[in-house]
């Protein structure tokens, strides 16, 4: 019996430059100018305004923004598990990687797992620098596709700024094979824009054509959007991996679609892809398999960490997982001041 899965958005916040948390913040409004969608008459240059851009460095743990949100929205002296109504606190990147591990033939994923006040914290052993090389160009695409604070389009030479808004989500996994046993996970995901109907969404770029994107990136992107609880993702298609611009229309063969046709059409430069549609492409994965893998890993971690302050290193591969109870370094990944709030 497959694992039932549900994602509920329970809060929103943004982080200011001095690490101040602003509750209930919304991301920028989506720029819904029709000229920015489908086939473009002019390329979007993603290098403009990036000359002085520097990715902000931070000594923060990846969990710190979420923990600060939980502090600000929880009553002191109430048990942590009661406050969040969940067994796990982690990041969406860890959940994504654990779910994908069933199809992963690469290096093992290593994370720290630590039980504190009857809640299990999952922390990355090493920070993932995935896609950092094109981060400024992604921010420029987001600038094209959103409005400024006065609800006007950004000027093309405006400097790039890295601002983020997070949603706080609760993931519930229920297995019929385990007597409808459920596990709940709290995490926060970044979202990039809000449309006129109030839908939160993600903005991405890719240098891959549709077929290659389905083969190489569709699973990771689907899980990211599903975990963020966004109904759709907007993609800008870059010309190629070397050139940082969203290309103009070009002819493609439509055999990439679900119902092949022999004609050639113009490929969209900016696509709107519903999250629920991604598994219906000709993918080489099944979402049900991923969710079952995720549930089994979390259940095993919970069974291994029986007592408070138990810590271990978890190594996950396609074939299974190993646990080493020698992860002392993980102790300080959960700020003692945070834990003291719930005592």
From TrEMBL:
<dbReference type="InterPro" id="IPR039039">
    <property type="entry name" value="RAI1-like_fam"/>
</dbReference>
<dbReference type="Pfam" id="PF08652">
    <property type="entry name" value="RAI1"/>
</dbReference>
<keyword id="KW-0694">RNA-binding</keyword>
<dbReference type="GO" id="GO:0004518">
    <property type="term" value="F:nuclease activity"/>
</dbReference>
<keyword id="KW-0540">Nuclease</keyword>
<keyword id="KW-0479">Metal-binding</keyword>
<comment type="similarity">
    <text>Belongs to the DXO/Dom3Z family.</text>
</comment>
<dbReference type="GO" id="GO:0003723">
    <property type="term" value="F:RNA binding"/>
</dbReference>
<protein>
    <recommendedName>
        <fullName>Decapping nuclease</fullName>
        <ecNumber>3.6.1.-</ecNumber>
    </recommendedName>
</protein>
<dbReference type="GO" id="GO:0005829">
    <property type="term" value="C:cytosol"/>
</dbReference>
<keyword id="KW-0378">Hydrolase</keyword>
<keyword id="KW-0539">Nucleus</keyword>
<comment type="function">
    <text>Decapping enzyme for NAD-capped RNAs: specifically hydrolyzes the nicotinamide adenine dinucleotide (NAD) cap from a subset of RNAs by removing the entire NAD moiety from the 5'-end of an NAD-capped RNA.</text>
</comment>
<keyword id="KW-0547">Nucleotide-binding</keyword>
<dbReference type="GO" id="GO:0046872">
    <property type="term" value="F:metal ion binding"/>
</dbReference>
<dbReference type="GO" id="GO:0000166">
    <property type="term" value="F:nucleotide binding"/>
</dbReference>
<dbReference type="GO" id="GO:0000956">
    <property type="term" value="P:nuclear-transcribed mRNA catabolic process"/>
</dbReference>
<dbReference type="GO" id="GO:0034353">
    <property type="term" value="F:mRNA 5'-diphosphatase activity"/>
</dbReference>
<feature type="domain" description="RAI1-like">
    <location>
        <begin position="9"/>
        <end position="319"/>
    </location>
</feature>
<dbReference type="InterPro" id="IPR013961">
    <property type="entry name" value="RAI1"/>
</dbReference>
<dbReference type="GO" id="GO:0005634">
    <property type="term" value="C:nucleus"/>
</dbReference>
<dbReference type="GO" id="GO:0110155">
    <property type="term" value="P:NAD-cap decapping"/>
</dbReference>
